[in-house]
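Kindly review these tokens for lecture notes.

. . .
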Amino acid sequence: MATAYKTPGVYIEEIPKFPPSIAPVATAIPAFIGYTRKAENRTAADLHLKPTRISSMIEYEKYFGGAQSEEAISVTVTVTQVNGATTDQRAVAILSEAARSKHIMFYALQVYFANGGGPCYVVSVNPYTALPGTPLLADLTAGLNTLVKADEPTLIVFPEAQSLSIADFRALHDAALQQCADLQDRFVIMDVHGGVDGVTPISLSDPDANLLTAIGNFRDAGIGTNNLKYGAAYAPNVETVLDLAYDESSTDVSVVTNGVAAAAVALNTLNGTQNQVYELAKTAIRDFPCKLPPSSAIAGIFAAVDNSRGVWKAPANVSVNAVIQPTIQMSNRDQESINVDVTAGKSVNAIRSFTGKGPLVWGARTLAGNDNEWRYVSVRRFFIFVEESVKKATEQFVFEPNDANTWVKIQAMIENFLTTLWRQGALQGVKPEHAFYVAVGLGKTMTALDLLEGRLIIEIGMAAVRPAEFIILRFSHKMAES
């Protein structure tokens, strides 16, 4: 309605000509769901089952504490003496996988930030249980359910899920994939569970494990067949450079001198009495590899690639930081059946070491590996990014007049956004009209009945870039011409 002018004079009216803009949403905000030492901000347990945003390990330790200390480490120090003089000293630390703490959230966050991770959410489902710790499906599911109300997270990670039975592992990740399908704004990064018949006989932390058998168990019993385009799996586990937390009073040290073993003593009793043996034992414990599932490192790589290249760049052929090597080495022949599953399409992305390059992410497929639309992680996540950005931007038009004026504004807004993405390399095509289209209007996307019932329908098509997964070089002999 025009302003009623009553006083003589000059009046200024500013007329908006530019269409509204779309603000790109964040693309790599993972939510880590698991057990922590504490969950406290102001009062005890006030962060229990509360998605909490953090940006560093300092914040994590402030709210959730440190790692669970290992109590089953044993160290053997071998001393060689000649004529009473020590000529050689060596120490070896041992910690069985069965006795090690299964609560690894602290280490998972360390690896996440080491690989370029930024802001993330932590959902503490409960304090650590007694060593070695037994994660429960009910606890992790409760953490997943609280995440429904958090709008910002775009990735879901369960660092401790490998310690569940394979049946519980499947139930948890099926529920996570269903949440992604319902909300359409997040993606699941999962590890591979190698167990069968409700137990875990094949450990992906074991260098002698049969990786192909573990992958087969995962495909058969570790994940269902619904909503696979919203998740990706990675294997095997990795050896990291992280130091294990341990309790010196519960760490036994045995000193073997010229083949004669003395009675084992607690590590802390050697401090001040046998300082050389004490330091040697601590060095051996530091050298003991901290093995972790790869999902937390992959979440950090997602964040780093998104920030440096864009969500449309496949998070593959990228170094894995803070990692020495994958626990199981694989060949090209091994990866053939892992990368491509002709039966159900459940592709598993490999972590592989290459000479001169170190450990790399060597796969970029979703679990829907046989789906031409949603085969690649980058394509699925790019569509999530665009859908969520456009959704939030168009909320301002709810209850606006459903007429041509509104349609023109919306179309211009979305086209400007997609043109910017095209210029950045997110879309195929030498011209914008080859890369995308936006349609809205009566007779295009809506009928007269749609207008009567209050529906404003927008159709968007995009030619997303896809990774060059297979680079084929063709050579042939050429006859001499001179």
